[in-house]
Amino acid sequence: xxxxxxxxxxxxxxxxxxxxxxxxxxxxxxxxxxxxxxxxxxxxxxxxxxxxxxxxxxxxxxxxxxxxxxxxxxxxxxxxxxxxxxxxxxxxxxxxxxxxxxxxxxxxxxxxxxxxxxxxxxxxxxxxxxxxxxxxxxxxxxxxxxxxxxxxxxxxxxxxxxxxxxxxxxxxxxxxxxxxxxxxxxxxxxxxxxxxxxxxxxxxxxxxxxxxxxxxxxxxxxxxxxxxxxxxxxxxxxxxxxxxxxxxxxxxxxxxxxxxxxxxxxxxxxxxxxxxxxxxxxxxxxxxxxxxxxxxxxxxxxxxxxxxxxxxxxxxxxxxxxxxxxxxxxxxxxxxxxxxxxxxxxxxxxxxxxxxxxxxxxxxxxxxxxxxxxxxxxxxxxxxxxxxxxxxxxxxxxxxxxxxxxxxxxxxxxxxxxxxxxxxxxxxxxxxxxxxxxxxxxxxxxxxxxxxxxxxxxxxxxxxxxxxxxxxxxxxxxxxxxxxxxxxxxxxxxxxxxxxxxxxxxxxxxxxxxxxxxxxxxxxxxxxxxxxxxxxxxxxxxxxxxxxxxxxxxxxxxxxxxxxxxxxxxxxxxxxxxxxxxxxxxxxxxxxxxxxxxxxxxxxxxxxxxxxxxxxxxx
Length: 619
Description:
Elements: H1 3-16, H2 21-29, H3 33-36, E1 52-58, H4 64-71, E2 79-82, H5 90-93, E3 110-113, E4 126-129, H6 151-160, H7 166-176, E5 177-179, H8 182-185, H9 188-191, E6 200-202, H10 209-224, E7 240-242, E8 248-249, E9 252-253, H11 256-261, E10 270-273, E11 277-283, E12 290-296, E13 302-313, H12 316-326, H13 332-337, E14 356-366, H14 371-377, E15 388-393, E16 410-417, H15 422-432, H16 437-445, E17 450-459, E18 467-469, E19 480-482, H17 489-503, H18 509-513, E20 517-518, H19 534-543, E21 546-547, E22 575-577, H20 592-609
Parallel strand pairs: 1-2, 1-13, 2-10, 5-6, 13-22
Antiparallel strand pairs: 3-4, 7-15, 8-9, 11-12, 12-13, 14-17, 14-20, 14-21, 15-16, 16-17, 18-19
């Protein structure tokens, strides 16, 4: 039994005891009562063979929960939301416990593959690819960052899918956003980009004085290398660094389950079927019209449920293409090899791309006195307890041709960790990224007696593409996920320059003062190359690369894609895809918030097409 499984079982037990006065007192002392003692998730609907609904939404994730909740606002529509998992556990709701969810029953526990000669720190080239398997999907399991991308991202979408420009996207970002940070709302240059009224509550939690001092010193260091300090990462500036905003409010994660499904749980026209896995979309082979889904119930019975209006697939970047492929929609050559009849030949599963990351570790002040910071922040589980700074930067003009000058090349996350956390770092390295023993040991050793700044350098706009393919015609078998990193050589050149630029942080005032140095992590394949040379950093980038798990594009919208700009599957009536898989090109930042925006916009599109949207908005 894994550590994460043990932690989740412990909190399940605590939740079952939450009515005991002593337990209530302890939970309040740990600021966990809001998370553990309040559930109120929608009740489970037990599906029956032959059930009929107007709309069937497959997947209750970042987009699916929103679509289902918004469609249920039309009282005359009966909506079914099907989720393969169950309710979010306390470890999802408690913000500071998010690292304990990977590879548990709340995770699909997929594994992705890098190409031979890439990512050699990963044994067998495998990288765990976490996907949420519960109400809220990935919004219930992710790292809580609120990031929307930059306007140019959506202007790029609009070129291939008219109606997805920045002004349209901004309207729906503001519709979903419930900003609580007064420093943003009271600043006129930023306030017009935000809204305090939406269901997804956004905050920048108050930190300890010691944590604030660390944040300030690191943001000053970034200013010294040319990344200016800004009020926020979702403001008018596309470049700069700040403490990030988080999807946290009142000590709870604000997933789409929290923000949309809980308020809609008593609606008589919304049914939520949990622990039910859709294995196939039912499509008439003559008319090419979707009319329902095939579902494996919690009792392992395979039944059919029917939709009178539409089936909306919101399974995410992995499960949506998997479902379409099993339904006969996809590349004919691939499907025929697996004995699946092709109904429509579409590029399902292609165009997979992701934000790849590379880890850079700076060793700072030596001495175990910095352990105190770990001890001070550890109990703050109602927030993200450790100091984190985030930002965006571009490289110089030699890399100006791509992406646009109005888009950053990189995002970064700088996490401070006091000395003495080596065992935690080692275990996390081995489990979260499947790092090999030598790499993870060197990572742990860097923190044994020194504070460290663990910097994740995120490449935002890769040209390389991977794919999601079926392994067999068994709908319960995991698909093949090929990440495709560095298939385009330009990406490796950009990654190398990004690492070299970030390494200059070690020359700033703070790190010179504490005699800091860059930790020399052991990267398989780079032995014998002189450390710090261009050749070394290129080797490091090639072999230490991993995923931040922001995959998009496997059912992309636009010409020669899978869906049109209204998210309707080409040549199939009554079928849409609404999730990260429709994104044609990845945005400049974390993908959870853009996917929520897609869910809000899709719901309005559907209402409009049925004549039930009273005010036409940005299409």
